[in-house]
Structure formats: structure tokens, C-alpha cells
Write a structure and sequence with these properties.
Elements: E1 9-13, E2 16-23, E3 26-33, E4 36-44, H1 45-55, H2 61-67, H3 69-81
Antiparallel strand pairs: 1-2, 2-3, 3-4
Length: 82
């Protein structure tokens, strides 16, 4: 897995690293875990486009998400719902 992760998107914040994997119209945001992976969110492509449009960030997808605190709030909110 460590060599394959270079093919995924990568977002970092405060030492936390999330990876993004695209499959069809979906984006899967996950992090490595000692037992495998932890999936934080699965977003449809249209949801992500809407999110980026509302954020008005004219940079690449991973950079935009990495710098946007609302994205990290979205990721963290999944923990409180489980």
C-alpha cells in the first residue's frame, strides 16, 4: 500500500494525512490505519463540485480542500455521527 499511495490525492492538515481516491462519480477520503484504512467520507462528484464552487477557490481540487477549514469540519463531523 505504501507505494500505491502516490497515485492517490493527498491532503494534509496539522499532521493528519488524508488520501483521496476517485472511482466513477465518487471521491473516497480515507487515512491509513494499522489495521488497514479508515474511510471518512464518500462524496459524489457533483457534491464536491458544489462544495468547491461555493468555496470559490481557483486552485486544484486537493489544494482547495486541504486549505479549506469547512472540508476538515465535514471530515470531523463523521466521527460525531458514528
Amino acid at each position: 500500500m505504501s507505494t500505491d499511495l502516490e497515485h492517490f490525492g493527498k491532503l494534509e492538515r496539522n499532521g493528519k494525512i488524508l488520501h483521496r481516491f476517485r472511482i466513477g462519480d465518487y471521491r473516497i477520503y480515507f487515512e491509513r490505519h494499522e489495521l488497514g484504512v479508515v474511510v471518512h467520507r464518500i462524496l459524489s462528484k457533483n457534491t464536491l463540485k458544489d462544495f468547491l464552487y461555493r468555496s470559490s477557490l481557483p486552485v486544484k481540487e486537493d489544494e482547495a480542500l486541504q486549505q479549506n477549514p469547512k472540508f476538515w469540519d465535514l471530515i470531523e463531523s463523521a466521527k460525531s455521527k458514528s
